Amino acid sequence: MSMTRGAEGQLPIVRDLGAGALGLLASTALLWSWLDASPWVPLLAAVAYLVMAGLILAGVPRHWERLGLANRITLSRGTLIALLAGTLADPCLLMQYAVPLAALALLALVLDGVDGAVARHTATQSDFGARFDMELDAFLILVLCLALLSLGKAGPWVLAIGAMRYAFVIAGIALSWLTAALPESRRRKAVCVWQVTALMIALLPAVGATATTWLAGSALLGLTWSFIIDIRWLYRHAAASPPKDRRAGSHS
After folding, report:
1. In 38-158, where does DSSP find H-type helix?
2. Closest CA to 203 of 111, 108, 104, 95
3. CB burial class (10 A; 0-12, 13-18, 19+) of residue 35?
4. Cellular component per GO (predicted)?
């Protein structure tokens, strides 16, 4: 989306993003100093946050003057996920502090339910908010998969869990019918929650390689099943609908 919003109208949103950046800066500074983390940790976390902030600015509807409470909560979740992404730069940190880092992932998962509830309570649901929430879910799952691979608790196959969403988006470039809007689905949300939960449990030191394989494997099977259902629905819908009636959308 092109950025035609004036600087004055954009300022409150930039302030929200700046507040998130300050929170991330404080968190990574504490992490770096107290836990003797690698200097690459705050750098990678900052890069992850800046990319997220840039995508937010590019995707926010042009008439919006502020993010709103629900999206601010989602932004807070994004800050936590950026911090988790930063820890990928230091596998020793991941190994030594797997439990508190898994707790951060749990907090991000809890906030995933809070932002939606706030949006419904305040009647501020939006396509942007749903997309923002969905993309953070996908990124969190990818970060957890990379963490398991970095710790040697799972082989490269675990990345299929985190990469499937992005492969679906790329496939949509060539197959436009994959970009049609999908109906609301509790099944899709349940699969997402189980992915995060299973990968989070697998990160814990007490969970061995065999249990990790079963946990991550169940997440992969559930996700594959969910994608097959949605792709089949999209294909049938595309075959039954005239091209002019198709709408852009995405898998969540």
Report:
1. 40-59, 69-86, 91-96, 98-121, 127-150
2. 95
3. middle
4. membrane
Angle at the Cα of 108 (from 194 to 167), degrees rounded to 5?
A: 60
Residue 55 lies in a domain: yes
Contact 52, 82 (CB under 8 A): yes
| pTM summary value | 0.85
Residue 250 belongs to some domain of the structure: no
Residue 2 domain flag: no
Q: At 179, which CATH number?
A: 1.20.120
Q: Phi/psi at 216 (nearest 5 deg)?
A: -65, -35
Total domain count for the chain? 1
Would you say 140 and 82 are in contact if contact means Cβ atoms under 8 Å apart? Answer: no
- Residue 141 structural domain: 7-245
Pair 160, 220: CB distance under 8 Å: yes
Using one digit for the tens of pLDDT, what is the confidence trace for 170-221? 999 999 999 888 888 889 989 999 999 999 999 999 999 899 999 999 999 9
Q: Is residue 135 included in any domain, yes or no?
A: yes
